[in-house]
Amino acid sequence: MDTLFRDEASEVAERREDEGPADSSTGEARAHTARDPLASEASESSRALALSDVIAPRSGPGEALIRLAYRLGVPGHALAAPFRRASAPRLRAQVRTPIAGDRSAGTALRAGHFLVDSVKLPIAQVDFTGQTRVAPGVERSLHSFGWLYDLAASAPREMCTDVAERIAREWLHANGQCPLRAAKAGAWSIENTGLRLMAWLVHAPLIMGASDSSLRSELLDSVVETAGWLDRKVLKTGAGLGQMIGWAAVTAAGLLLPEGKPRRLYGQAALVKCLGDLVAEDGGLLARCPAAQMQAIATLTDLIACYEAVEEQPPEALFVMRELLVPPLLALRHGDGALGSWQGQGAISADRVASLIAATGVRTRPLNEPEHWGFQRLRGGNTQVQFDAAPPPRARHARMGCASTLAFEMSDGPARLVVNCGGASLAGGQVPAHIGQGLRATAAHSTLVLDNANSTAVLLHGKLGKGAENVEVERRAISKQVTRVDASHDGYVARFGLTHQRILSLRSDGSQLAGEDILIPAGRKGVRGKVGFAIRFHLGRGVEAQLSQDKRGASLLTRDGRLWQFRLRGDAASAGEVALAVEDSLWVDGEGRPHPTQQLVIEGLTSRGGGQFSWLFKKTS
């Protein structure tokens, strides 16, 4: 693996200086930095993988010249076959993708309606022009043609072609003309357009294989026009997953359309560079979003299948990247196999995760300590803890950014004990749209909140403002019996003059999770007076909470009969201004369905000079 990384000693030394020490066994601290205008470029370069310096596709001066000419606008056929006319539109091969869709959603399509985030939408009532406002998930499914994967998974092809052609025809009638510029959302966002082109290429037999020759011709023309539109627009869009998907689609079109070598070389080189800017060295996307991580893996898998269809060897960088992307994703799986609720996502189901990993063929273990992605993983016995120990994603990468710094989730086997509410990105379906913004707030996560304020400003359209810029992390083994992670953030320093520090210690047998939330004075501001605080522990679906008689603890019973005790400890247990209560909450599953749940809340007043609150989860049966 040493050959995968940069050889230059100076670059390695610079990166280590930017990142700080990485030794988890000695307990030395690391600092994450985000959105600091003065440090942003250094931070991004230190975290990015720089695949162009890793296993970039080797090419001679001839190929470099072809890429340059194509980028400058020389037609691909003139470069690939300069003395012949351009070939008629056709696809060179049939792609067999291992990516499987949702069979139930495909069955619903055959029955006459879309099924997105548990919401049914009759095909006859769909406005494909985008003039009628729909939920973001529905909009994405319609315009990305992601429904083709679901339809293909539901039945043999001949049973699906009529539905596929009907929807494709209506979409082309409403959106067939490529616009002059890319849109931020809707049919012609770079991300949706790239996904749509990839779906057309991968599932061409489903929408082009029937007897309707006019539709087949129209779709082929649209494939060519869309590929040309992406050639011009992807380079101008901002960095992020959408750009990566756009370059992957351009590369796929270069593989599957005639005389496409110039386009393939152009898209392939840009894709490798884009991946280096998008992914941290530990394999986590800088978006810090599990759904985005899954989409990146699926897109690379589809693209590799396109290479295989035309018997071309994919660049080694694509395989390396896919192998890097899987371990961080596995770190966010709970004992039930489904993912934790992070950065606006619901708890993506175990079946979806397992299906995707199986499609990649990658066999690996979860990454316990993703240094840059920032989700620390603690495991003891059947108990797993996921800890958000990094700043939220920066604006250029945020998708549905949440103020979740220092939140955690905890499961005991298949039972989820402590969760985050999740589901902000699924709002507009069964989750009311007006609740979506609240699901991104700090209070919707299992962490400490000061004066009901977010640790990072939550803005519209999934963006984040100022707040937690730096997170200090220290992980160590206290003994063979206990693993401890100590993290702090500065999200409340500007407003309250306090740094929030959280310490989590898990026993090796998983029987106890001890926690401390510490408020430490920072700077000159706010040394007098008091401020309200709340430490929230959102409980998993089906967990029953019962307060103890002294109101300093609670018993927690899971649906499968697992019993845990929660207790306040130390000063928090005796302080008169601190109270423990059970309140209502909600949790959004991976299908977008909200479920009523409960939460434990430690609430009270604390001095602006600081405070310390200790608590314990202990398994009793």
What does this structure look like?
The chain has about 625 residues and is α+β, with helices and mostly antiparallel strands. It has 2 domains: about 1-30 and about 370-620, Beta-galactosidase, Chain A, domain 5, CATH 2.70.98.70; about 50-360, Alpha/alpha barrel (Glycosyltransferase), CATH 1.50.10.100. It is about 35% helix and about 20% strand. It contains 19 helices and 19 strands. It has helices at about 10-20, 40-45, 60-70, 75-80, 105-110, 135-145, 145-155, 160-175, 190-200, 205-210, 215-235, 240-255, 260-280, 290-310, 315-330, 350-360, 435, 495, 570-575; strands spanning about 30-35, 115, 120, 375-380, 385-390, 410, 415-420, 450, 470-475, 480-490, 500-505, 510-520, 530-540, 545, 555, 565-570, 580-590, 595-605, 610-620. The strands form 3 sheets. Strands 1-9-10-11-12-19-16-15-14 form a 9-stranded antiparallel beta sheet. Helix 8 packs across helix 11, helix 9 (about 190-200) packs parallel to helix 12 (about 240-255) and helix 14 runs parallel beside helix 16. The protein is elongated, with a radius of gyration of 25 Å.
